[in-house]
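Suppose a colleague, Dr. K., hands you the sequence of a protein chain of 144 amino acids and asks what its three-dimensional shape might be. Before reaching for any lab equipment, you can write down a predicted structure in token form. Begin with the sequence itself:
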Amino acid sequence: MKLHELSPAEGARKNRKRLGRGPGSGTGKTAGRGMKGHRSRSGGGVRPGFEGGQMPIHRRLPKRGFTNIFKKKIEIVNIHDLDRFKDGDVIDEAALVQSGLVKGRFDGIKLLGEGEISRPLTVKLEKISAVAKEKIEAAGGTVE
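The predicted structure, expressed as tokens, is then:
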């Protein structure tokens, strides 16, 4: 078999239907849209979720729960993420944002104790778990 002998399988390729090109084409005049009605008009058709006037399913089903508009978004950082900092670095909110550990909008940062830390660091965060505090102090760092 050579490159110029390759061809698609029989019936794999179809020409597109050319609509509204005269009566001889078979799809002239109304272009396959029928006579009158909403879908025959330009710009016609119904929006997503429209069920012909019947009460739509998203309105028929009961709603549950509520959204707390006062919810705080707390970003989580683990101890093992702090290995990218040098010995004696001060780790605060600005340092974590600059290093790319936290992104976007948030209301606070909490340091959790997953993983190990091998270098002494000074951590200045509002929320630190007890395990994280222990591990930082065990490595010779301080928590403020």
